[in-house]
Please model this.
Amino acid sequence: MSAYQGTPDGRYFVVKGTLWRCSNPSLPDDVRQALVNQLMVARRDVKAAKASGDSGELTAARANVQKAKVALGERGPVWWDDGAPDFNRHKVDNTPYAQWHASLTA
Model:
């Protein structure tokens, strides 16, 4: 993720003009790593299920990806508690981060 620019508040990183929610920084390193490992297994399972054409396996694998991403804080309820809205998967130019992002290329 270091190849992508993170927002000043550490909540998102930007890829091709889109905000993506970062993992919860308060997760202990060992817990975060275990969840990342689960996510990678689930992503490999998605790839295998697509190759096999088994729709049931694909559904289960995608559910496991979702479960890992929610546990990491990348999807589902936000991990911050200041009431700020979630801009995950929004175009950065349509969010309060627009001016910050524009200043990076100015």
